[in-house]
Structure prediction request, 219 residues.
Amino acid sequence: MKTLKDGKRRTTSSRRWLERQLSDPFVAEAKRQGYRSRAALKLVEMEAKAKLLRPGRRVVDLGAAPGGWTQVAVERVKPAPGKGAVVAIDITPMAAIGDATLLELDAFAPDAPQRILEALGGPADILLSDMAPPATGHGSTDHLRSMALAEAALALADDLLRPGGGFLVKILQGGGEVEYERLMRRKFEGTRRLKPASSRADSREIYMLGTGFRGPGIN
Ligand SMILES: C[S@@+](CC[C@H](N)C(=O)[O-])C[C@H]1O[C@@H](n2cnc3c(N)ncnc32)[C@H](O)[C@@H]1O
Prediction:
């Protein structure tokens, strides 16, 4: 493991995080491939099974900063005027990415559906959410906040997603995901859990994939 010799003072947890980042092969690989985050590799890996991102599709990327997933989406969708779109949303500002439209927006904002639909130019084919709350280190708090974000993403599916569309959402497990998965089964023709190898094995993070959206109003 590389040690940190930059002389900066850090808390134990931030030092551990930084040491893990520096020795993480996925961080190095993401950088080598030109991605802004190691998260990009998770999407690449899940896409091998999910096959959501096809040229010409309209894609929403919730919780997009710093932009790794958006980079992957742009590469695959190849948005062009009138043909496909990638709309990336985050409460944190992001630097421009190719032909993606970036919106500095809270997924809970009442005007979020309207603003996203305007930027998309029509209903979404695919809704992605890698949204995560700031980690408190307190397991059940982080779980509950993650579930609230996953629920916001699923509510946005009702407003944005066309029937037949696809949905991929991050969840920090802790109990609430069981009921969430039941709801996803009602709303989608197919539901499955994904845990990419590039998602840290010791993290409670998983992803849920929904395919064949049955349309809004099913609860
Ligand atoms: C794990 S990061 C996303 C990484 C990103 N997918 C990538 O590939 O670079 C989670 C993001 O969720 C965002 N987020 C958290 N709460 C949000 C909310 N209410 N609305 C929009 N974004 C939110 C955070 O600001 C953070 O940038």
